[in-house]
């Protein structure tokens, strides 16, 4: 069950990043997972809930966007979807080249963004203080800080978005 290692890396990266910005709670974690990763989403959901128990990410939703295989034709450069189980899709629809392509997508495993609310120390949204990392407008965390927080993990790209609004009705 390789999902355990993958999800463990996600939880570690999310908690490390949430801690570095003083997040009160992680509400959502958005992943992009390629079809070629061959993971079972239900396992990932359950493992995420288990591994994040007792942390700021305990109640976070894990939202997985699956990307199909796509290839780029070596002859004409066209990008087209491919079904590895259906040989009728192995030909370029633009130029007719057969099995002359390289993989374009389908093996991704990335944390696209995390959404957090509040501050660990105050329970209030950081957006009020003017800190850009928590701005209510989907600002991205500085690349150096996010990349260093998950360096060496199995995720290729990391982009984090922080939502600095408190939950309503709590």
Describe, in plain words, how this protein is organized in 3D.
The strands form two sheets. Strands 2-1-6 form a three-stranded mixed beta sheet. It has a three-stranded antiparallel beta sheet with strand order 4-3-5, with no helix packed on it. It has helices spanning 3-21, 41-51, 143-149, and strands spanning 23-34, 61-67, 70-73, 79-81, 101-105, 109-119. Helix content is 22%, strand content 25%. The longest helix has 19 residues, at 3-21. Helix 1 (3-21) crosses helix 2. The protein has 170 residues and is of the alpha+beta class. The protein has three helices and six strands, in the order H-E-H-E-E-E-E-E-H. Helix 2 (41-51) links the parallel strand 1 and strand 2. The chain has two domains: 3-67 and 106-149, hypothetical protein PF0899 fold, CATH 3.30.2320.50; 70-104.
How can the largest sheet be summarized?
3 strands, mixed
In whole angstroms, the N-to-C terminal distance is: 37 Å
What structural category arises from helix and sheet content? alpha+beta
**Rg:** 19 Å
Helical proportion, percent range: 10-25%
Strand order of the largest sheet: 2-1-6
Compile the SSE list and pairings:
Layout: H1 3-21, E1 23-34, H2 41-51, E2 61-67, E3 70-73, E4 79-81, E5 101-105, E6 109-119, H3 143-149
Parallel strand pairs: 1-2
Antiparallel strand pairs: 1-6, 3-4, 3-5
Summarize the structure.
The chain is built from three helices and six strands.
Q: Keyphrases for this structure?
A:
single chain; 170 residues; alpha+beta; hypothetical protein PF0899 fold; 3-stranded mixed β-sheet; 3-stranded antiparallel β-sheet; 22% helix; 25% strand; disordered C terminus
